[in-house]
Amino acid sequence: MQVIETLAEGLKRELKVVIPAKDMEARMNERLAETKDKVRINGFRPGKVPFAHLKKMYGKSIMAELVNELVREKPTEILSERGEKSATQPEIAMTENEAEADKILSAEADFEFTVAYEIIPAIELKDVSGIKVTREVVDIDEAEVTEQILKIAENARTYETKKGKAANGDRVTIDYLGKVDGEAFDGGKDEDAELVLGSNRFIPGFEEQLVGLKAGDEKVITVTFPAEYPAANLAGKEATFDITVKDVAAAAEIEINDDLATKLGLESADKLKEVVRGQIESQYGSMTRQKVKRQILDQLDELYQFDTPQRLVDAEFDNIWRQINTDLEQAGKTFADEDTTEEDARGEYRKLAERRVRLGLVLSEIGEKAGVTVSDDEMQRSLFEQLRQFPGQEKQIIDYFQKTPGAAASLRAPIFEEKVVDHLLSEVKVTDKTVSKEELLADDEDGASETKKAPKKKAAAKAEAAEGEEAAAPKKKAPAKKKAADDSAE
Length: 490
What we know:
The chain is α+β, with helices and mostly antiparallel strands and 490 residues long. The protein has helices at 21-35, 51-82, 98-105, 142-153, 258-263, 269-303, 310-331, 342-370, 376-389, 394-403, 407-425, 437-441, 458-468, 484-489, and strands at residues 2-9, 12-19, 91-94, 111-118, 132-138, 159-161, 171-180, 183-196, 218-224, 238-251, 429-435. The protein is built from 14 helices and eleven strands. The longest helix has 35 residues, at 269-303. InterPro entries: PPIase_dom_sf, PPIase_FKBP_dom, Trig_fac, Trigger_fac_C, Trigger_fac_C_sf, Trigger_fac_ribosome-bd_bac, Trigger_fac_ribosome-bd_sf, Trigger_fact/SurA_dom_sf. Keywords: Cell cycle, Cell division, Chaperone, Cytoplasm, Isomerase, Rotamase.
C-alpha cells in the first residue's frame, strides 16, 4: 500500500491511497480459501470446488467486500500512523467509472481512493495560574425565603365564601356565555368556572369588569380579543359575555406553619424553610457558576488563538443559524426588528461559531491531559434527566440515543465540559465577592460582547448558551387548560 500526500494547506489534508492489484488479488484469494469449505455448490462435494470456479462465482463479490472494508478501516489506520486527528469524518472518494471499477473488482487494476480531511491543530497548553475570576455570592436572608414560600403557598391557598362585593384577590364562581356579533362561539361557554380576580388568566378587560359584583348578580361585559389571539376566528374581535355570579370567596390568610408544610408535602415549617432556602441557593448558584464559567472562557479565548477546522466551524454555525432563524420566526420578527441585517448577523454568529469550536478544542485538550473522564453512571443520570423532561416519550428517546450515531456524545460533552471547568477552578485564582441578588442577576453586557450586533434578545441568548453556560433543555409544552371554555376566555 502506498500513501501519497497530495494536499497540505493549513489544516487541510488530502491523501492518495494506492493498493496494488496483486495485493488486492492476494487478499481475495485468502478470503476465497477461507470460504472454500463453507460454500455449497450443486455438482461439487463440500471442499472440492475448483478454485478457478470458486473465483469465477464469488471473486467480484468478495473483492467488493474488501473494497468496503479498506475504505472503512484504512483511513483511521493511516491517520494514526501519521499522528493526526481528523476534525470530522474524513471524506472518501474513489472512481465512479463503471469500467474502471470492474477492472479493480477483477484484480486487473490498482485500487485507488483519496482521503480528504482537516486535522485538529496541535494545542500547546498554557499556564492558567494567571487567570483570575470573581465568584459572586448572594447572602439569602429570611425575608427572601418567606417571600418565596408565600408564592409557593398560593397554590395551596384556601378560600371562604363571603357576603358582599368581589374585590381583587377574591375567587368568583361564575357561569358565562361568550358571543360575537350576537352569536355564541365554540369554547365560549362554561359553568361553575372558578376565577381569582387579578390573576390575569382571562383576556384583558374580563376580570376587571367582575370587580364589585356579588353572588346572584348578572352582567353582560364587553371585551376585545387580542390581535395575536391563537383562534383566528376570534383574534381582534369584540365579544360580549353573559355573566352569572354564583359565589364570591375571600382568600384565607397564609400562615407559614406546620399545617402549610403538610399541605405542601413536608413534615414541618422548618423543613419547608430549609427546602426553599436550598432551592434559592441552587438558583443563585447556577447563575454564579454561569458567570464564573464565562470569565474563564473569556480568558482562555485570549490565551489561545489558532486556526480552527472550517468543517467544524461550518457545522457549528449551521446549528446556531438554524436556531436564530427559528427563534425569529416564532417571535414573528426579522433581523431589522433586532437592529441588524442578515449579513451582519451572519458575520457575528460566524465569529461566535469559531470561538465555540476553538474553546471546545482547548477544553478537550485540557481535559484529556488532566485525565478527565465521564463515567457510565454520569451518562446514565444524564439520560434519565432527558427522560424525566419528556414523560411518555421514554422509548423514542432511548431508541434515539441507542441508534443515532453521535447522539451519546451530546450527553457526554456537557458533562465533560463541566468537569473540565471544575478542574480549572482548582488551578485559577478565585475571589469570592458578596453581591445583592439584583447584581447577580444583572445582564452581563461584557460577556455578551461577541453578539452585540446580532439579534440580541432570545436568539442571542440561546446562541451563547453552549459556549459557557449549560444549554437549556427543550421545554415541554404548557399543560392544557382544564376546560375548553377557558381557552376562549383566557
